[in-house]
Amino acid sequence: MIDELFHPFAYEFFRNGLIVATLAGALCGMVGVYIVVRGMSYLTHGLSHAIFGGFAASALLGVSFLLGAGVWGIASALAINSVTRRRPIGADAAIGVITTASFAIGLILFALFGRNGRSFDAALFGSILGVSLSSVILIAVVTVIVLTIIVFGYRPLLFTTFDPEVAAASGLRTGRIEALLMIVFAISILVSMQVLGVTLIAAALVIPPTIARLLTHSFPRMLMLSSGIGAACGFIGMNLSYHLNVQSGPGIVIVAAAAFLVVYSIKRPSGLQNQPA
Amino acid sequence: MTGLQTFTQQPLVDVVDLGVSSGSQPILEHISLQVAPGDLIGIVGPSGAGKTTLLRAIAGTIRPQAGSVRLSPDLRVGYVPQVETVNWNFPTTVNECVLMARTSRRFAWPTKVEKALVASVLARLELDGLADRHIRELSGGQQQRVFIARALLRSPDLLLLDEPTSGVDVALRHELLHLLAELRSDGMSVVLTTHDLNGVATHLPTLACLNRTIIACGETSSVLTPEILELTYGASMEVLEHGGMRLIVDSPEHTHPGFAHSVRPLVEENQR
To answer: What is residue A33's predicted lDDT score, i.e. its pLDDT?
Structure first.
């Protein structure tokens, strides 16, 4: 039994996949906090689907996935940020238009030119096949960079997230800070896409912060809890996906969803109600 | 526009011919206003008069389409938002909430000096012992004071408060007015918006009556006249004096005769 549990660790691709999944869980859990506390969960769906368009385009053009999807993703993120700030139409509606159009472009490009069915599936649902050492290094570097931004910019990021109007009145350049956050979201999604997949990455960004919020009413504690929960879900989910022989994305998400159900059923959050006091 | 004040020193805020619009809809037009050190100014006017917009323009979060808002160099501004605009589900304790505004330091954890400062500000606002509570778990008055504490932690020269007395009962309103007077005597300038003429405006030394443009600005006693109020609110109002206090009542023709006997209309008195 124990042997069976440790059996996959013999494979390098699994060890790499496990590290990437754990780091992706921690990274998404960490940045997801800034999305969830603002009630912008729809953004995660939008952004990941937008990046899928870039993924398909880069596959078609034969350029590096990171370059293509990275440029596309950051451009989409900044476009969304600009729409959200100006609000000529409903921000959620505008995001729906921008990002589903981008997703549709990706699907069309794959349908017309995609020859490799496996890479299409991998983009949608995540895969640990082909997780190389460079993927491990990449996500580790991004995690360290994002952690550095959060530690060294903690108060400006928190102030802008909680109260952008007053933060601006206090002299913070909230426009730049919000743009920086959007770029952080886009890059985090980009490096996590390989193991989580476009359609499921939103769960990794939303579920761990939601569980953490049920457990604490303190922002720094929520950040730490959410990162830890995300990492644990990534680690356990990746093992589960190997043993059940399913894609890594669903494996990770089902663990996170189960954790949410358990915590939700035993814990009533403090300071979290539907109606203002 | 204040007119009544002669400035011996540079004003902290100098608003000159300010214009703000949303699309083609003007919100503020030809606003000129000065805030001097130690001023306590109330901005009054009907809903939609542009009170919050003027406050935000002074705070620098709105870029004016016309005119300018000049702040004295190195002016520290503390801004207290309307409590209705606060996201009460946000995960933040009282301690975390007040600390986030000290952006001179970027890390999460406070220095010893900051810890002492937070403790003294919370004690001054009678919030000591509540530092680790979530902001939603407080009473309405305490919630209001958390956001004042957050603004005070920046050691501001100018405190801006948007409708600080909305949804607050009489005792808390008095407490707040005392606190603002205290801060003013400490040398802080205070500008607040209010829709409460009797509860707040009559107690302030200086008022600016706003309805898209400044109708009048100056000492409260000279500004609170039926003519200016009618221009500001577009409704007939009477200013009465009762026991040395000013009372503003609308629809004077419906005033109960018994009530009218006990208070003398100020205008009549002036006309004698």
So the answer is: 97
Which one-letter amino acid corresponds to residue B128?
D
Write out the two tokens for B66: 């016309």
Domains, chain A: 2-263 (1.10.3470.10)
- A63's tokens: 């350029």
Q: Do A166 and B81 touch (CB under 8 A)?
A: yes
- Is A170–B137 a contact, with Cβ atoms under 8 angstroms apart? no
User: Could you tell me which residue, B75 or B258, shows the higher pLDDT?
Assistant: B75
Order of strands, sheet of B158-162, starting from the edge strand that comes earlier in the sequence: B77-80, B158-162, B189-194, B40-44, B206-211, B213-219
Copy the structure tokens of residue A232.
């644990």
C-alpha A219/C-alpha A240 separation (Å) is 31
B65: which 2 tokens?
Answer: 């389409």
Which two three-digit tokens encode residue B163? 């409708």
The residues, ordered by sequence, that sit 6+ positions from A202 with a Cβ below 8 Å of its Cβ are A41, A44, A45, A48
Contact across the interface for B89 and A273, Cβ inside 8 Å: yes
Gap between the Cα atoms of B168 and B176, Å rounded = 10
Closest chain B residue to A160, measured at CA:
B100
- Locate all alpha helices (DSSP H) within B138-219, ordered by sequence: 140-152, 170-185
Question: Quick check: A169 and B85 CB within 8 A?
Answer: no
The pLDDT-based confidence of B251 (bands split at 50, 70, 90) is low
Q: Where are the domains of chain B?
A: 1-75+157-219, 88-155
pLDDT tens per residue, range B152-161: 998 999 999 9
**How many CB atoms lie under 10 A from the CB of residue B235?**
10
Nearest to A25 by CA among A176, A223, A192, A166: A192
Task: Please list the residues that pair with B20 across neighbouring strands.
Answer: B28
Q: Are A225 and A33 in contact (CB under 8 A)?
A: no
Tens of pLDDT, residue by residue over B10-38, are 899 999 999 999 888 899 999 999 999 99
Specify the pLDDT at position B104.
86
User: Which of B56, B71, B86, B92 best tests the A interface by mutation, with the highest count of A CBs <10 A?
Assistant: B92
The pTM for the full model equals 0.86
Taking the CA atoms of B204, B209, B210 and B211 in sequence, report the sign of the dihedral they define: positive
Name the residue type at position B261. Answer: H
Report which of B205, B162, B191 is spatially closest to residue B11, judged by C-alpha positions: B191
Of B56, B51, B43, B5, nearest to B191 by C-alpha is: B43
Percentage of residues of chain A with pLDDT beyond 70: 91
| Locus of tokens 């009465």 | B240
Per CATH, the number for B1-75+157-219 is 3.40.50.300
